[in-house]
Design a protein that fits this description.
Strand content: under 5%
Number of strands: 0
Helix content: over 70%
Structural class: mainly alpha
Number of helices: 19
Number of domains: 1
């Protein structure tokens, strides 16, 4: 339990780092590169991310579970690692060939040779991070430290090298270069725990489960990245930039809400091996409460603070993104819940087929809605599509999770947290008369946080008292 607590703390620190960095970086690049430049680089990142999903072959999820099961024995750990990495390398070569033909025959990046070349290294760098291995052996401290190094390097180089609108390709190379450095560090450190083998490997046993999770990743990749791609091909770079500004805010918030997602895969997998189902039930129910506990106040704050967030985060050119953020806020709840149902229940219980079906339905819905809505409503069409898609996925993953394992959903907790969070609205309206911009965001956030904590303490909320409050009181003593 002590190790799990440390892992959660490091994963939250990782999420906080991923929140702070965009808050530093995006206002600068949005001002320097403008919506068109942001649109070009966002498209490059999105396209590379799509092929990373293809190239990762479902290993980022599968690897966590298998490494967690093998880590009791150094010999078995090295064997499992070698088998998975061998499959990964073979498939990566195939993926890069597909990517080459894709950008050649579609004339993608036709006038952007620097970005075209960088995108190949981007794919290799992202896949080479092997975070799945460190998550499996529960070395979240290392993952967090590498992330801080990579992000710190990105910030320094960004402010030194990116000076005008034409430097968008330099910005992309900075992202790629930092990722490559992170991959080299990860691979070097990983080899301190295992010995890579080429003999007596059994690759065949991994093919079927990896294939199912790979199909799942492909389906997820379709509805996660399709919005940007459709906007690029059926709209303008400006619309891509406006949508990117809004979606970045939501994705930043999701980093905290979903921070328990992959952390609990190895723990629950081990509990299943030991048949400790009561402990699994407690863990899952606490995870659901955590999503509601964190997600409800974040959703309300995003709605009331959206104008000021965009003004500071992106600038006046992105004011249209305010409405997009407000429309996207339900994703905090939908994705938070489907992460618990999918990653913490279906994957550890080896119900990959059910997870595949759920996300495949989402992918089909996404393709249809993007095709219909984006040409007509542009960035708003992308928003409607992703919200409806994630709602459908949440419903299906919940259905299959309940069939796989019996747990109690905390409906009353959710209503309590939402009711307390709703009190932020009158507070924000009152404070808006006295403050603006960054000061307004700071004062509203602090006042809302204090009110939320006081409310939870007064009603003696069990989750708050037994986890957050007790944790800090014990540490103080």
């Amino acid at each position: 339990m002590k190790l799990l607590r440390k892992n959660v703390i490091f994963n939250i620190l990782l999420g906080v780092t991923n929140i702070i960095v965009p808050l530093i970086v995006f206002p600068y690049i949005s001002e320097i590169l403008e919506p068109d430049g942001v649109g070009i680089t966002s498209f490059a990142v999105s396209l590379a991310s799509t092929f990373v999903i293809l190239g990762s072959l479902g290993i980022p999820i599968y690897g966590i579970r298998e490494i967690a099961k093998a880590k009791k024995s150094d010999q078995e750990l090295s064997k499992t690692f070698s088998e998975i990495v061998s499959i990964q390398v073979i498939w990566l070569v195939f993926t890069l060939l597909i990517y080459f033909f894709w950008i050649f025959f579609t004339n993608t990046f036709q006038d952007e040779s620097e970005i075209k070349l960088a995108s190949f290294f981007h794919i290799v760098g992202l896949i080479g991070m092997i975070n799945w291995f460190f998550q499996g052996i529960e070395k979240y401290k290392f993952i967090t430290m590498v992330n801080i190094i990579v992000k710190g390097l990105t910030i320094v180089l960004l402010f030194v090298l990116v000076k005008n609108r034409e430097d968008y390709w330099i910005y992309y190379w900075i992202l790629v270069g930092s990722t490559i450095i992170g991959s080299i560090i990860s691979l070097s450190y990983g080899l301190q725990f295992v010995r890579f083998r080429t003999k007596n490997l059994n690759l065949q046993k991994h093919i079927k489960p990896i294939g199912i999770l790979f199909s799942t990743q492909i389906a997820i990749g379709i509805y996660v990245n399709l919005d940007i791609l459709f906007l690029k091909y059926f709209s303008t770079d400006e619309q891509v930039g406006l949508y990117t500004a809004a979606s970045k805010v939501i994705k930043i918030s999701l980093l905290i809400v979903t921070s328990l997602g992959t952390v609990l895969i190895p723990k629950i997998s081990q509990l299943i091996e030991k048949n400790q189902f009561n402990e699994i039930k407690k863990t899952i129910e606490k995870s659901l409460q955590f999503v509601l506990f964190i997600g409800c106040p974040i959703m309300i704050l995003l709605v009331v603070l959206a104008p000021e967030i965009i003004q500071i985060f992106a600038g006046d050119q992105f004011l249209f993104s305010v409405g997009l953020i407000q429309l996207l806020t339900p994703l905090i709840f939908f994705i938070g819940m489907s992460t618990v149902f999918g990653l913490q229940i279906l994957v550890p219980f080896q119900k990959e087929k059910q997870l595949l079906f759920a996300v495949s339905i989402g992918a089909v819905v996404s393709v249809i809605l993007n095709s219909v809505l984006i040409p007509k409503y542009q960035s708003e069409g992308a928003v409607y599509t992703i919200v409806i898609t994630e709602l459908i996925i949440m419903i299906w993953t919940y259905y299959y999770a309940k069939k796989a394992f019996s747990f109690k959903y905390p409906y009353k907790k959710g209503l309590t947290y939402m009711a307390l969070s709703a009190l932020f609205i009158p507070i924000s309206m009152l404070l808006h008369k006295f403050f603006d911009a960054f000061l307004y965001i700071s004062v509203v956030s602090i006042c809302s946080f204090i009110l939320y904590i006081i409310g939870l303490y007064l009603i003696k909320d069990a989750f708050f008292m037994n986890t957050i409050w007790r944790f800090f009181i014990k540490n103080k003593k």
